[in-house]
Amino acid sequence: MLDRQGRTILEATGLQARRISGGNAPHFAGSLFYEVAWQPADVLRQAERTRSGTWILTGEALAPDHEIAAALRLAGYRVVTARLDLCGDLAMALAPREPLCGVICLAGLQAPATDTLSAVDATNVQDLTISACLSILDMVRSLATDPSRGATPLVIVTRMGERVSDAEMVSPIQSAIRGLGRTIALEHPSLRCKLIDLGAARGAGEVEQLIMELENDDGEEQVALRGQHRFIARLCHPPMEAPAAPAELVRAESRSFRLDTRAAGILDNLYFGEVPRARPSTAQVEIEVEAAGLNFLDVLGAMAARPDLRPAEAPRFGYECAGRVVRVGSSVTAFRVGDLVAAVSPNSMASHVIVPEVLCCHVPDRLTIEQAASVSVAYVTAWYGLEHMARLQKGESVLIHSAADASALPPCK
C-alpha cells in the first residue's frame, strides 16, 4: 500500500487461508464481495483562493482555443496545449519557471461519442480504442521519465466511460480509457491520476463544473459529473441473493446417467442426468465406466469455446474411458462380460457407454484403471498423425509443436 506520494506504508509478506465451517459461513462469505457503486456527493463550490499557475492541456491536435482552455484562462490560469507525447518535456521545461497545476488529458473527449458508435463497426472501435490508449501511454511515459522533478498531477477526462445509472449506455472506447487510467493510478502513484467522467448530455455549466472539480482536491480519484450532480466511486457490498435450494440428490443405483450441461459457458451448469439405457447391437459392447479421461476438448465444450460446434449444438463430454464389459452383442467374439477394457467413445463421462467392438481393447495388467482411461486419445492421435498420415520412417525427423501437450507426449517418448 502506497501513500499519495508513492511511498510504501504497508507491505504484506504472508497469507494464511482457512476453511470456513459452521452456520455463519454463508453470511460471512457475503461480506467478502464488493462492487463499485456510484454514490451522490456534494457538488463542489468555487474555490476561495487566488487562481494562478499553469495547466497543460493535451490531446490529439488540440486547438489552443478549446472551450476548456478558454474557461481556465477566463478563471485566471495560464494554459498551454501540447501533444500527448510531448507534454512531459513541456512540463519539465515549465516547472523551474512557474508552478504547474497539472496535466489535463482530453484524448477521451476527442474519441467518438456513445451515440455515434452505432455507425462505427467493431473493427474501427477496436482500432480507435488501441490508438487512444497508446497515445495516453506515450503521455504517461513522458511524464514519468524523470521522477526527480516532482509530481505532476494528471487528470484524465472522459465522456460516458462509466455507467452511473441503469439507463445510461457507456462507450467502449471511453471505458477502456477509464480502465487504463485506473492502471496508471496504481502503477504511477506519483502522478496522482484523477479520473473525471462527463455525462452524455453536454448541458450548460458543464465546463464550469469541470473547472471546479479541477480546482478542489478533496482526495477523490474517480468522479462522475452528470448535469448538476456529482457522483463518487465507492466499494460496496452487492445485494446477495438468497441461495438456491440445493438440487435433490438421487442415488443412481441401476439407472444410467451421463455428464451434461444446462447451458455451455458456465462450469456450474454441469450436472449428471439420467439417460435411457440402450442395448448393444450385434457388433457392440456395453461398458460400465469406472474412469473417464478428461481432455482439452471437454473443457472447450463446457466453456462454449469449441469452434466446430454450432451455437445451438450441445457438447458431448468424454471421449475415452475404461471399465468392465457388462453386455456384448451377438457377434462379438473378442470380449466377454467381466473383461476390463479401455475404449474410445463419445459421451464416455457416464455410467455406461455402448461402443463398437473395434474401438475397445483389453487393459494390460501393468496399467491402472485411471491410466487406461487416459492414454487412448493421445496415443491414437500420435499414431494417426505420424504413422498413417505422415508415414514416418526410421531416420526421419519430425518437428513437434507444444511438446508438453498430451498428444505430443507419446511421440516424444
Overview of this protein structure:
The structure is a single chain. With 413 residues, the protein is α/β, with parallel strands linked by helices. The protein folds into three domains: 31-236, 3-Layer(aba) Sandwich (Rossmann fold); 257-374, Quinone Oxidoreductase, Chain A, domain 1 (Alpha-Beta Complex); 377-413, no CATH class. The protein is 25% helix and 22% strand. It contains eleven helices and 15 strands. Strands 1-8-7-6-5-4-2-3 form an eight-stranded mixed sheet, sandwiched between helices. It has a five-stranded antiparallel sheet with strand order 14-11-12-13-15. Strands 9-10 form a two-stranded antiparallel sheet. Strand 2 (54-59), helix 2 (67-74) and strand 3 (78-83) form a beta-alpha-beta unit. It is elongated, with a radius of gyration of 32 Å. The two termini are 49 Å apart.
